[in-house]
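Quick bug: Syntaxin 6/10/61 N-terminal domain-containing protein output formatted oddly.
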Amino acid sequence: MATSFDRWEKDPFFLAAEEVQESADRMESVYRIWVQERSEGDLEAAGVTGGGPTAAELRRELHTALGTAKWQLDELERAIRSNDQVISAGKDTRARHDDFVTAIGYRILEVENNLKESNVAEGRGALSWVHLDEDERDDLRLSYLQALFNRKTK
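Here's what came back:
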């Protein structure tokens, strides 16, 4: 009997899901440092010492990591939905995809909400995101897919 991981490994979206997972892990790592820094008000207490990032740099890094994870998850979800409809994916496949997207989406939403609350509390205003036109999105999507393909062929 195949395990859940075995089924994921054979899934055509496995490599893309791994990339999304890595981005979400990176986001959470930066988020933990940011939360620690905020709770103690001291970057040294968060384990960031000697030449480490300033509070502003850490916030920017978190915002970037959040945006990357959010964009990658959106792209993966869009590709999954399109593919699942085209190939009439089975119930188990759709459930596996939905579970992954939901779990990562929840992690992203939690970080985004906390960053938004912090911005409001500190009078920084709303989070802003880069808005790409359709050609720019296609170029970014293509470079992302090329990176995934190159990673798979190595």
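Actually, after a second look the formatting is fine. The two ends are 29 Å apart (CA to CA). Closing.
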